[in-house]
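Re: weekly structure request thread

Next one in the queue (290 aa):
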Amino acid sequence: MLIVGGTGVIGSKLVRYFKEKNIDIKFTYLKNHLPIDGGYYLDITEKTPTVKFISDMKPDIIVHTTAITNVDLCEINRDLADLVNVNGIKNVIEGATISRSKIIYISTSAVFDGRKKEYEENECVSPLSHYGVTKAKGEEYVKTSGLPYLILRTDQPYCWIEKWQHTNSVLRVLETLGSQKTLNEVVDWHNTPTYVPDFVRVVFELCDKADGIFHVVGSDFINRYEWALETARIFGLNQELIKPINSDELNLPAKRSNVKLVNHKLLQKFGISMSGVEEGLKNMNSIRKT
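Done, posted below.
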């Protein structure tokens, strides 16, 4: 198995989990490197080296985790977003076509516009942001590749991270309140937050058993303000420092959609249930970093 983007948050957790299960794992990195055997430098925006690398390695399964996930950056710099999020997966697919590898593509709730009450896996995509557009294009390339595939859509992943990795909503709450500072949190953004160790276990369970699209998200649909309050409660921090605001006060470049992904298919087909916010935060707190 090859993890493309093995030093990102989800990628690194996948590498460690599969290593613990004694699975033969190789992974790619761009800037940072895990202190684990099996890492290879790869820039997926470079077509020829990417195709050669994958076709030479011939992995049975490729988990594609690499993406620019900063929604506002994708809106401001669309060329960069297209280069990484669209051309990158095209290059990986070209290599995978030669090696006949299965593709597991990590996608997002942002492929939907949030106009429906909830979204199952078979809904037509309708992104609002350019980030969502790039991920929807990636999904389409995977689906039409002729290769076996899994598309796993997730939303607001959270967990402890390495120092070089992108932060998440939970860690922002912990850092801000831990410094006794006021935190402004948005009341009109709703998400289905996903505890990353849950996501990793799903990839392990489904990688060679399933094909198609699955929503791998937490079981609660909650706004950012309520999520922050729950985080403060679980970690014993001062909830009074959290102040509700509306998103229009932020004047951000990209539009956000309130998308409720439902994860019933996971439970119905494989008996897999995902943690709600309280359970995920309690699990995270139980392995609190010092």
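The chain has a mean pLDDT of 97. Residues 130 and 201 are 30 Å apart (CA to CA).
Next request, please.
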